[in-house]
């Protein structure tokens, strides 16, 4: 009996072995004979296959007998079919080809299609682009894409947008990483590269220009960026990259206060296919440098610096927003000493005399230590070739600075994202959560003001002493001695500032740490935001069922749990829950001999803060003019619910000044505008000068509501002779209920307008609200890519954006030049065995006006050159890159109030990077 069973099992095993034979092989570049990793090797007509590993090897199990046809494909190589008649090693060579016009994208329609056939404008960056880029960070590569604007608030915080509405912390641009919305749950905007993919784990990055709400939700009015990480089944092996560099090479240039400083970036990725079913990857990246410091000392009150204007308020000088009219102090001094009348009376007759407290420049006040740590672990298990489970955990922590109503120094800020996903051949079910911790965030403006007050109060009502009484006393003594008002003012400031702690001193740090450790809700400036986001999405592709068209539909549920303990939202007593429900569908049908592709997308969104749901639509048509030429047209009617920040924010940004959402919960519930009306801040300033109540202008604020846009785009893409790729487009958009910001003030508890004459009796607000005007934006863009053969490639792109009918009361954040262009020229492999490569880019922006919460002004024109040269060590599977960004070290800004950016020069060693 035992022998019979054993024989039977051996027969089964032998049958299994014969039924499941293995084909192994190696794939190389036919020109250089190098191995080619991440090549797809599939058995034709099946879902069975493999990817080549970092040694170029593959292993495919054949279950239905020989012969079989292997289909080998990889971007940048000609696809090749190999007929295999039996098991055994295969030695395959692939012919390199230009990638121009061959790129495929997913984000434009949620399914795979060629980029030039996309119904909307889309830009793509792939792994090879990143390897050959002079930028040390892939995230900064997007500033060279057509139609893209960026604001660099600090080295670790870059904000991206398209179509002109550009500001630091843009809540209308969506950033998605591996299917997860990358926003900070409380802030509602992506926080740059603090969380997301590490440098070595980017498979591709796609940027959708303009409204993309129909597929990606209501935050996508200004565009969407979708990033995809590398699949560990496809990208295998250990990779490492070490970058060492230097910046701030010329101290004092463009007010750069730092001298030459080191830059470090270390990245490691390990991807392992353990079996045909299980694979994992681990990613770690650490970046450290001395940050660019904002050092614009321009006086926001007008001409003159601190020595010429006693009321000086510097753009990047913090604490100077504490100001007062010293006339009441002059009157008090004259009442006590009548002999001062000959000096005081002429001063009073001149009108107001505004004097500000002395401020602190950013360097020495905010830390210049830029740090970023990112880690990621992902596990994948295939139950069968068409059913895969994915679990991942991503964590980011760092120091960064961003600009809004003031400068915010995010110190030890961290964000975690955790995902579980089940993916079938035609569907996926994804759930994830994002968890935010604001760490020790320093709010530059009010912290500096409170440091001044803690050291010496502006005025102590109990003692009658303070900074201003001392200032006025010294002023009058100096004028009595014959000095002019301006000279006496400078003497008075020096006298009142005696003993003031210097930035970085022991006393200064004690005061700063004390104030920054007290929550804003209790009189300090600490954020205690630990908001969370929970999201579940189900999508199904019905194409195999409906047959006549491509149909994708999905459901999405999202819950924001706002938990700032009253420091960012009115959530002192308990967290605030905001839920969103969405359903979407996308249908594509080809007609007229498959030459015309028609598509329609619909999305239903409901937000629990607002009574009515909204429906977003997108209609598009793509006409194939010839085999490689396409005309596209799209229309989108998109709605955007105000973000949690635009609706519910209530944040201290200066002494007695708040950045605020426009929800009625705040307007009348907290600020009591129904009892104590809001006046425009400009009219309050006018009233303080004239004392004429008629100068005060009421400003009616209503409960904020969703904004919408009707967007049209017409474009043309063509690949000519396989060598020249062109893309041109024009767009026109009409915005309704456009959300901008207005500066107002009221006097809580006081109805007498005279209360506005006392700075301590009124509060300022920068409030989000809907403008009544219809705002129009329009623009055009063009790009040309030319394959010059022998791996030489040149690209040029040009774009232009305009805004009409703007509401002059609103800060609209349309911060872009009327035109901009980028040029790129490079080679991906030349010389013996194509070991060498290089890439250069040129970016030009003319001067343009930039609005932001705490200041507005002109950003000067900039012309920036980046370059790199690489040499490959073939036997060591390594590359050495020598490069630099802004190699001429011509400092430039891309945001008003943001730092000037100088040159960064580096050398990189990369091992097994592909």
UniProtKB/TrEMBL annotation:
<dbReference type="Pfam" id="PF13715">
    <property type="entry name" value="CarbopepD_reg_2"/>
</dbReference>
<keyword id="KW-0812">Transmembrane</keyword>
<keyword id="KW-0472">Membrane</keyword>
<dbReference type="InterPro" id="IPR012910">
    <property type="entry name" value="Plug_dom"/>
</dbReference>
<dbReference type="GO" id="GO:0044718">
    <property type="term" value="P:siderophore transmembrane transport"/>
</dbReference>
<keyword id="KW-0998">Cell outer membrane</keyword>
<dbReference type="GO" id="GO:0009279">
    <property type="term" value="C:cell outer membrane"/>
</dbReference>
<keyword id="KW-0813">Transport</keyword>
<keyword id="KW-1134">Transmembrane beta strand</keyword>
<dbReference type="InterPro" id="IPR036942">
    <property type="entry name" value="Beta-barrel_TonB_sf"/>
</dbReference>
<feature type="domain" description="TonB-dependent receptor plug">
    <location>
        <begin position="115"/>
        <end position="224"/>
    </location>
</feature>
<dbReference type="GO" id="GO:0015344">
    <property type="term" value="F:siderophore uptake transmembrane transporter activity"/>
</dbReference>
<keyword id="KW-0732">Signal</keyword>
<dbReference type="Pfam" id="PF07715">
    <property type="entry name" value="Plug"/>
</dbReference>
<protein>
    <submittedName>
        <fullName>TonB-dependent Receptor Plug Domain</fullName>
    </submittedName>
</protein>
<dbReference type="InterPro" id="IPR039426">
    <property type="entry name" value="TonB-dep_rcpt-like"/>
</dbReference>
<dbReference type="InterPro" id="IPR008969">
    <property type="entry name" value="CarboxyPept-like_regulatory"/>
</dbReference>
<feature type="signal peptide">
    <location>
        <begin position="1"/>
        <end position="19"/>
    </location>
</feature>
<dbReference type="InterPro" id="IPR037066">
    <property type="entry name" value="Plug_dom_sf"/>
</dbReference>
<keyword id="KW-0675">Receptor</keyword>
